[in-house]
Amino acid sequence: MENQTLDLDVLIVEGLKVTPQSSVPAFILLLIIYIFIMVSNIGLVVLISMERSLHQPMYLLFCNMSINDVFGASTIIPRILSDVFIPMSQRFMSYDECVLQAFCAHLHACIAHTVLIIMAFDRYVAICNPLRYAAIMTHRMVLGLSVWAWSISFLLVGILIGLSVRLSRCRWFNDQRW
Q: Which segments cross the bilayer (predicted)?
């Protein structure tokens, strides 16, 4: 077999392998997980924004993580839920959808890591400079660091996906479906 470049803009999705008998329980379980993720994270964001005593730097960073979790779950789980009832041989995704989902999944992971870096910096300042903590970790500083985390993540993932999209899509054809 020789390596061939595909000119098609359709990809086969080989992710979740669910038998027809277990598709309903898998769908219900994934739906419950998705609802739990959404309710808990949105509830946390609402709680932090409503309660004035929680407007501290670490809680605002928790709010950042919750918004990112809602974004990440909304990127991945709805597609899995839609593919549960489709037979594996008929699961297709356009190349543009694949690129968008890859961008969103990588962005979610990158934002999670950059916000964790900011949380580590917050704890470092709180432990090493406890008397200057309030002067260093102001609301403006937390907002600036949060915007930085989201912006740098968007830039880095944009470069990553932009460079990956330019590559040719190749595959070894071992099966006779094509």
A: 26-47, 59-80, 100-121, 142-165
Residue 85 pLDDT: 80
Residue 116 resides in a domain: yes
List, for residues 115-144, the tens digit of each pLDDT value. 999 999 999 999 999 999 999 999 999 999
User: How many domains is the chain partitioned into structurally?
Assistant: 1
Q: Is 5 helix (H, G, I), strand (E, B) or coil?
A: strand
**Residue among 67, 87, 68, 91 at smallest CA distance from 79:** 91
The three-class DSSP label of residue 140 is helix
User: What is the predicted pLDDT for the residue at 173?
Assistant: 52
Q: What is the 3-state secondary structure (H, E, C) of 154-175?
A: HHHHHHHHHHHHCCCCEECCCC
Burial class (CB in 10 A: 0-12, 13-18, 19+), 126: middle
Residue 154 maps to a domain: yes
Distance CA 40, CA 58 (A): 18
In a domain, 152, yes or no: yes
**Which residues of the chain fall short of a pLDDT of 50?**
1, 3-7, 176, 178
Q: Which SS3 state, helix, strand or coil, does residue 16 take? A: coil
In a domain, 175, yes or no: no
Tell me which residue range forms the domain holding 108: 13-170
